[in-house]
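Working notes for the structural subgroup meeting. M.R. asked for a predicted model of this chain before we commit to crystallization trials. I am recording the input and output together here so anyone reviewing the notebook later can reproduce the run.

Input as submitted:
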Amino acid sequence: MAVTLRGVVPDDVGPGAQLFYDAFRDVASRHGFAPIFGTVADAANVMRLFETFPVIVGIVADVDDRPAGIVYVDEGDPIRAIALIAVDPAAQGRGIGRRLMEAALTRCAGGRGVRLVQEAYNTHALALYASLGFEVKEPLARVAGTPAPIDGRGKVRPLTLDDLTACAALVVRVHGIDRSNDLRDAIGHFRPFGLERNGRIVALTYAVFGGSLAWGVGETEEDLRALLSGVAATLGVPLAFLLPTRATSLFRWALAEGLRVEKPLTLMARGEYHEPRGAWIPSGFY
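Returned structure, recorded in token form:
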């Protein structure tokens, strides 16, 4: 079996979307969970979205001139991310996932580290990532629901490029790393929100699709709670986000607010990593 690696091109969206849909549906259904992509069209929309960001690079593994696996890498900030990876169920068990990950890590070599988030029930992926040098850093849960409004903590408002410097400084205080490029893209393409108190941004996050949130940070857990509640009220739809389950009081708050746990995940890192100093939620990248 000859495997050829190349870059993703626009013509890959059709077969690639089918590949992502089939791969995630296969592993999720075997463990009783809902897949990441509800339809092939959902997967195609994500691939097209990735095409709009020059910092996200796709690599295809072809077998017999057909895509058998795809990985996307986010190279935008000093900490790189494995954004998405899948292998066609019919081609699994042949080392294609390892070949793709090795190629992705080669691209990440210029960064200070690389991270990923994997579904904890996918034991084969967990073993692969560990064998490639990734370490488990945080157990996560995807939660969904609508928290009640919280008054008195500040004003939730949209973020603009004028807020970028203050937001970047907040991220560095919490995570010890810079995510300015991701923030800039979020402000330009998605729905970013900040909690402002006394003229300062004390918490931030952004919605990607509907109520699905990417990562966020807060000076305190109370700030992050107020932000999440305010974003839910502003969007008018239930939220869905990843939550570090070691943040016990934040986790219990979410459960008390009626948010349900949808699935377990694991944050893994290779290279530089700092324990967060503040409240935080990760994205599907990290």
